[in-house]
Structure formats: C-alpha cells, structure tokens
Amino acid sequence: xxxxxxxxxxAWASPWRGIPVGTKVIFSMTLVIMALLAPPWPTAVLITAxxxxxxxxxxxxxxxxxxxxxxxxxxxxxxxxSATVTLGEFEGPGWRWGILGIRQADVGLGVGLLLRxxxxxxxxxxxxxxxxxVDLLAWxxxxxxxxxxxxxxxxxxxxxxxxxxSLLEVRQAQQQRLGGxxxxxDRFAEAGRLVGSVAVRTWLASARLADGLAxxxxxxxxxxxxxxxxxxxxxxWAAAGVVLIVGVAxxxx
Length: 253
Known about the structure:
Layout: H1 4-13, H2 21-37, H3 40-57, H4 62-84, E1 85-87, E2 94-97, E3 100-103, H5 104-128, H6 133-142, H7 147-176, H8 184-215, H9 236-252
Antiparallel strand pairs: 1-3, 2-3
C-alpha cells in the first residue's frame, strides 16, 4: 500500500506544482462539471484519458494513482451495481437470477454512472496530486476564506499523517511478532489491538501538538511565508484537451 506521505511528496516534486493553484482549480472543476453534466459517452472517457495523461506528465507514480483509486473504486462499483441490479419483479426485457435481475434499460444507467464517477475521480486527482496542501491552504487564505476554517483544515491535515504513521508503526511491530498468522479469531483480536494502539498513539501525539502550539503562543492562526517561485502556465495540450471535451459535450447534447 502506497504511503499517504508518498503522494504528498510526489505533489511537491511535480512540475505541475509551479502552475498557479487557481488555474488548476478551474482546470479540475471544469472537468468535474463536464463529467456530471455531459453525456458519459464519449465525454467521460475523454476526461479520464486527459486526467491520466496529466498525472503521467506530472510525474505522479502509477502505484500512487492506483492506491488512491482503491477506496473510491469500492463506492463507484457499489453505486453502479445498485443502479443496475433490481430486486424482485420488473417490467420489460432483461435478465434474472433468482430474486436478482437486471433490466435492459438499466444497463446504460449503470455504465454511465460508472464512467461519470471514474472521470470525476480522475479530475479531482489532477488537483489533489499536483498541489500540496500548503499551497492549497495559502490559496484559500488569499481568497479570504475565514481563518478558523483554514486552521482546522491544516490541523486535520497534520493529524492524518500522525494517525497513518502510527498505523504503519503498530502494524509493522505486529508483523515482526508473527502477527496475522493465527486463526481468524486471533487475527480479529489483533485488529482490535491495532485500532486501540493507533487511537492511543494518535491521541497522545495530538496532545503534544496542542501543547507545542500553546507554548509558541498560538491563538488564531500560524503565520507562514509563501514560497517564491516562477509561475508556470498550464501546458497547451492540456488546455486544448479541455476545449475539445467541452466542444464534444456540447455537440453530443
């Protein structure tokens, strides 16, 4: 499983980081809107191809993209299946296996939902995997988002890494003690101890973080200096891809 910190490090090293955050937000949100409103074929397929192409040129390792797709893929498949499979009797042509059935009219609905979801996820990944959180928070601050909201998001972002690192350390300690090799009952008990240990370690780490902020006189927000770097423009082929997708969506409708 890819480390969360690895995805963040890839965003820091990506050549797309030099592109202004506002430009990437517009780019990504345009693709998301097209995935939601435009017909799934062929618009969603083009959005997915463009998103994967951007991630490739942004030097995001494929294992990170595959790992990030893991959790959304479960919800995407379940959502498409729930829109396609019917319980009980139904009218019209279709297929039936006991109490389960698929109406022929629902196949297109399920496939369309699947294509839209994958395309929208790729569009969001373009922003998430090429923009470190510190850049995004600085951009929100320039957009005059209330400081308490930004501060809560910043603290939650740090706590995610603390909890994830605690999970990795405790799991590694269990594996070194031949964890996961016993009966299902023993594995279930190990999972419970894992959750308990991670909760305790995360709580203690959050308490130390709060004490450190209090010692430094933290009251409202942390003042940081944004990095100075030469802004880049979005590649011409990526902008042309967005224009092509918008044109295809309008033509299909």
